[in-house]
Amino acid sequence: MAELFLLQGLGHRFADGGEGLVGIDLRLEDGEFLVLSGRNGSGKTLLARHLAGLSLPSEGSILFRGKDAKTQRKELRNSVGFVFQDSDAQIIGQNVAEDVAFGPANLGLEAEEIAGRVRKALDWADLAGKEARRPETLSGGERRKLAIAGVLAMEPECLILDEPFANLDMESAMEIARICQELNTRGITILVLTHELEKILHLASRLLILDAGRLCFDGAPGEAGPELFAQHGLACPFQGHFPWIFPAPGPGGSTESGV
Amino acid sequence: MNPFALQPLAGPLPRLSALAKAIFLICLSLAAMRLDLLPLSLLFILILALGGLMGLRLQDGVVAGRGLVILAAFSALARGLFPGDGRIFAVESLGASTLYALRLGTVFVSARLFYASTRLSELGDYLSAGFRVLRRAAAFPGARKRDRPPSLASDPGMMLSLSLVFIPRAFESYRRIRESAENRGFGAGKKRLASGAALLQALIFSSIKNSLRTAEAMEARAYSPGRRIILPRIRPADLLFVAFGLALAALAFLGT
What we know:
- The complex is a heterodimer.
- Chain A is of the alpha/beta class.
- Helix content of chain A is about 30%, strand content about 25%.
- Chain A has helices at about 45-50, 75-80, 95-105, 110-125, 140-150, 170-185, 225-230, and strands spanning about 5-15, 20-30, 35, 60-65, 65-70, 80-85, 160, 190-195, 205-210, 215-220.
- A six-stranded mixed β-sheet of chain A has the order 6-7-8-3-9-10, with helices on both faces.
- In chain A, a hairpin with a 5-residue loop joins strand 1 and strand 2 (about 20-30).
- In chain A, helix 3 (about 95-105) packs across helix 4 and helix 4 (about 110-125) packs across helix 5.
- The longest helix of chain A is centred in the last third of the chain and has 16 residues, at about 170-185.
- Chain B has two domains: about 15-120 and about 235-255, no CATH class; about 155-225, no CATH class.
- Chain B is an all-alpha fold.
- At the A-B interface, helix 2 and helix 3 of A face helix 7 and helix 8 of B.
């Protein structure tokens, strides 16, 4: 597989001297399905911002398709789609179709090409038929899908989704996971940032775990054990390891443990 | 109610060019300011019927309608109260107040129809395109050749359309902040003014934060102030609509 990103000793230092990322060495390839996890404040979003060209490294370098990402910011933004954690702030248009058309219009495409891409992106995101709807009338899950459609219409090579399952019910979360899987089978590299691993890890080809800005695990999901997840403040996604799970109610409706 | 909310209205109005509709709105407003009571009443009924046919919701206009009634009542009081001949109220002044209310109502309903059938981004595109033409015309010949990076001044229309899109969102944020504050006792004590200032501060900070997020999202979606603007093609129906507006204005001016 061709190399998409190569991170060499990537570091990010905040204005107050705090370290956001420390010595990240990473190689991402075309067509991978990656899950980036870690506790809150571990640096997941910051690393993704670097990949999307929204932040610049304090140390080390990022190569995008073999070229320094600092000199490739325009290409990077056209090739890497970023779905923000707060997808509402990402919605700009007055209606669904207008919002999806925003990115392709910025690429300077012709009206027909824009219309075609809008149709295709709405089909992918399962929002066809809702073109005229105002974003504020959509449900939380639909708004998340709209944010994804807005990025898909730019036909990126790589799609980064920051906490795509936050505030979504299981059905909507599964729908987002299905869209990710479908896009990945079409050759788009997917990077999902989440600590809700049970919703997505079964689809991933590779798991990355960050802790305090350092890359602590990089490997196949099957190689990670329950101890590793516990060590980094994550719930083990494998069956039978959900610490919050409720016992099934008894015949009278009471739970066995009385929780 | 968001006065600038695009609604998926039925009929041909949403398909007409924003420029044609804006010219028509100006002509119609000028005509409404000149017409007498009877023709204006007919025009008002016609526009109301058009709004109804296109699916404009009546309840959207109720709040504004109340405001118009208050303005008309104030106008009637100012014109008719104590006319100086010993009467308390001059009933004959009601005609002028009714005319005033009808003029306001006609312009309001027409403007409502315009905003409900026009995309803000299209208005913004026209504004930016017009501004760029003016800038090019005003620039010195040498200045034109300079390769300057595009600045926000190249795209005032985007700023306008974004501001109008975000006004209702700012109201929604304020409602959430106020409800959360009320839930924690805001408004119950004596320090209401100080708490109000704290609410405003929270709103300003959250708005700035949201604006920064939106700016980043726009950047991530390849936005540049020097973006290419594609204006919709002016079609025969647009020209016909403009001609109708001009004729209406001309009739109103010639007939009075």
